[in-house]
Amino acid sequence: MAKPARVKKKQEASASKKSDKAGARRKAKEASAKPKAKAAAAKARTGGLRGRVASAQQKSAKPAKGAAKAPRERKAFKFFREVKVELSKVTWPTREELIQSTIVVVVAVLIAGIFIEIFDLIFSKLISAL
Closest Cα to residue 72, out of 61, 84, 63? Predict the structure, then answer.
């Protein structure tokens, strides 16, 4: 039995979408492999010492008298800027959610306190009876 034209068109469209997705994945994979290959080639040329030499040069360089505090201040400002960015990503509860959560915590603490008090009374009576 022959398939209707609608079904054939849908099958052809889905097949072309799949091939488009596969092509896009392949291109992305090739693009990410190029920087890795360049980095590996640079490491091979320098013997892998590029980072170590640069860090040794930075350590040996002496900062000026007033320059020692500047990087720390910049780091502190950077830290607080990053904290602000991260806190902006937090999903803060609404007032109603906060009240409900507080009630749940208070009730749970009361139940746990009563439970502990009951067992404390039972064990204290048992110990005093001995």
Answer: 63
